[in-house]
Here is the input.
Amino acid sequence: MPDPSSPPAGDASAADVPALAFANAEGAKAWANALPFGNVAQLHDAVTGQLRALATASFTARERATIAEVMRDQVAHLHTELARRYAGKPQPAVDRELEAAEQAIALWNALWEQYSACLKPLLEGDPELAGVKPKLLQRGLYVGKQLIVAHGLARRATPPALWQELHAYYRLAEMLECAVTAVSDDLLPNGVGISCYSTYSHALLLGLADPCAMTVKQIELADRWLAMWARKIFPYAQQRESEGPVLIVDLDSTQGAALVMQTPADPPATLRYGYPTKLATSVRGRLKRLQGGANPAELQLGHDCSAEQCTTLLGYLDAKWYQPPRRVPAGPPLPLDLCGGGVAAAYFRVSGRSFGRADPLGRVYAQKSQHLQTLGALTDYDRGREDAERSWPWERWLGSCEWRDATLQRAGAAEHRWVLEQLAIVRDDDRTRLGYVTRVMQHPDGALALSLRLWSAVPNSVAVRPLSAAMSEDPPLPALLLAETPEDKASLCLPPRSFSPGRVLRTIDPGTERKFRLTRLLQRGADFERVAFEESA
Here is the structure.
């Protein structure tokens, strides 16, 4: 629980704290209106400095809360600008991305301290706070929710201390009997009729959706939709009858909510129960209408997202909010080799040979080596192998690799940088598999965790060349052929921007010429395209 007895002062010495630029809330508004919004670096330094100065200054709780409201607008604007530098970037992050993420998280934390500094007077019955206690606690919960967003955009796990603080704010709202009191928020597009419980449920549902498995656009959309839908979930103190799954959260824990089919037999008094049936009905109703041809705008999903984007995200959220995860028997983590780098890297790791655009199979043609008496001694020479080994090394990870999914973790520094929808090659003692990244998360201790979705077919490398009606030939392409299996249709994994309906590719391996007419784009990843084809003679 936030410690209402702790002083607002930070750890910095007085010499490190800049002078406060205002003496009251009106002065803070005037100062904020004069800020250099066009310069992110100057704006960050100014806002950070004043938050530090505010933490050491003496204000009444009501005045501090009003100033925090002014600062919240500046922090939200700054976070939007900083997020352009770090949101959804490959992990491990490089210096500029890492700095931007740290700055954004530090800003929200510094703002949260201002609201926490008002809790002691609130509990002591400060008469100036009597009319604003639901708003004060809702704002604190909002900042905690924004920290979940910031961590998700940075591909970081939500820290246990953050969940602990959020639970404590909501417990305080319950104690002061203002959890359901409606407040408004001019900073939010749908900020009418919100409350402590709806903001708390918003944070819980966002965490349950697992932002580290979502694109930046999906996080933004889910956050926006939850501003309308979160009030459909209320954290009840007493369990109710329900035939569906139940969302449970322990206010004494350091974790977010969990979705279960069966609640604990002897629950603690701090356990809260949410029932997602109404939320699932809303999500599934929109899915059905989208499939029937409705557009996202008329379903209040927004004007900036396509029906396909909304359908994909709504299906994902329905699974997270209404379908408890299947339990996988936990065994000891096994060593696995992992490699990234796109289709060329996958071609190299599957075939054992590097791909060269002029000579993909490493062959030396007779017309290029007439001065040699014997060509056979050079036909197996792979001139690009050393560069390929340096560029696309195997990384040793620990985890489990099932038929369709792999879960991996690496404690040391990673050679490759990983991003959602990136092509990945994973190898255990028995076989080499191909798939793509579905989740990227960095733990508080710095360990990197990945989840992969694997294709069922054993990949085969093929070098292909597009057929051209003109006399000139298009350059060859590396490809991975995934044969048909009971789970998947046959497909080709190609470099980005290779697909065009009706395009014909022919293999250039000697003695095994095949022709593939591309029919449909099955998946567009970060560094690959997976396409369906028809084979012709």
Q: What stands out?
A: The first strand starts at residue 183 and ends at 184. Residues 61-86 form the longest helix (26 residues). The two ends are 71 Å apart (CA to CA).
